[in-house]
Model the fold of this input.
Amino acid sequence: MNSKLSTGSKIFNIFNYTFVTLISLTMILPFVHILAKSFSSGSAIAEGDVFFWPVEWDLTNYAYVFQDASIWRAFGISVLITVVGTGINLIATASLAYPLSRAEYKGRKLVLLGVLFTMIFSAPLIPTYLVIKELGMINTLWALMIPNAISAFNFLVMRSFFVQIPPSLIDAARIDGCSEMGILMKIVLPFSKPVMATMTIFYGVYHWNSYQTALYFLNDPSLYPLQVKLRQLIQTDDLNIDVETTMSAAFMNSTEGIQMATIIIATIPILIIYPLLQKHFVKGVMIGSIKE
Amino acid sequence: MSKVLANESSAKLNVKSKQRTVWSHIKKFKALYVMSLPGIFYFIIFKYVPMLGSIIAFKDYNIFLGFLGSTWVGFEHFITMFNNPDIFQIIKNTFIISFYDILFNFPAPIILALLLNEIRVVYFKRVIQTIVYMPHFLSWVIISGLFITILSPSTGIVNTLIEALGFDSVYFFGSEAFTRPILITSGMWQSIGWGTIIYLAALSGINPELYEAAKVDGANRWQQTVSITLPSLLPTITILFLLQIGQFMDFGFERIYTFLNPLNSGTGHIIDTYVYEIGLLNAQYSLTTAMGLFKSLIGLFLIMIANFLSKKATGNSLY
Done:
């Protein structure tokens, strides 16, 4: 660092470091607060005593969540659609992106244009719903996975990564008698680990967080994923707020504690995976943006 | 004469042999084409069929007759739509929220990226980046849950603070006046960090010699920012702005819907949430498709204007 900083520069540095620190605190503190509440007793929450450290340490909120079968069920469904859905996404996206990355594929401009067009003109909700209904997918978990099998953006990112793979490598494999599927599996995919990792996190987070597709296409509460379940938990309390004062303190408070515990449980998978994949997704965003 | 004929026939032959080579080419790389078919079908069935299915906005959709069989009614649904006073409130909400979103949330990541760029302690910068990207990975259900908790009138930390300062607590989620500020703030909280990634990449691509030259000329940090950094970012900013304008009316169902409740939805309902409630829940398929079409038309119109203006002003454009 330059030792001969001007006063203006020094003042700016102090302001800047303080400002970005404050911004990151606003990102973290809400979590710490919720974590603290989830471990606090109902009465401490009601008194408004809980800030960033649990008051009257208490595990009953988690005990409640863990014994609630419907929350477990929703958790399981979210895990299922995240794992299976992401698998479908990766296979579907890669098997379209690979052929379209090869110069041998005549007519790829037309297909690419067709995909780009869907990014500008998104499919409208009601006709999409009617198509899915015609296909008999309403009230099945397929409705959460198949209609979003390929994201146009992710497809373009993946394709632009495949394009960089040297064609001579692929030709060599062809001469050795490798099939196109074999080339994709044995050469292209192992070469593309960074982009595949990025796609896994994008698609995985999408499925884990998705709320609207379940809202649109599922009516059967036994199929609801975690986000819908969580929303129901939060919303009921949100509307009961003016009734709060008339309710017995113990009951009301445990509701909030339970909500906080459920939020934490719904967030944990992302918080665990996030640091592992961070170095990849930044790269992924850049590949996607630079290609245009 | 015979020469012309010979030319013509050889041209015909050429066309034929060209067709033959295209066909044999496709045959040769059959596997590639077969592999791409499921993906192509996916886009046709789930994107193009619904797009064309929008014609039910001009029809009385009947489940048994389908997209094509239902009877034409012309602009009837559009007339019904504009005769409903609620619609104007909804369109107004969509415009206002979108406008505020661009006004506040478009420049925010640029400013944050510029500030992060001035941080020279690499380790500190990395930590901050890791933290500010994170909210992007949380669901809107969780984010709305966070906001509801923090802003709760009885147990929320914000109201605890307000009361400690001697004021009355405020029921933020129960008042229409706070809907839009909450929506915009939460949007900023979620996306400000994520938005910096592209700008930081553009910033790292600026030639350091430019700064050296500016320093030699006696430019201070602020002058360097104004005359080197910002102009270098301008193409990125323009493209992202155009993309943002293109999604002017499309800023996300979940983002809005998870924050609404019957007390605050008057100023928060947008076209997307209205289409869900009236269209899907009440099965008013044709009417709400008309609304969706209206929304797309405005979006298209806006992106064309923005693209035209940007081409004139900066030479950057999407097409």
Observations:
- Confidence is low (pLDDT under 50) at residues 241-253 of chain A.
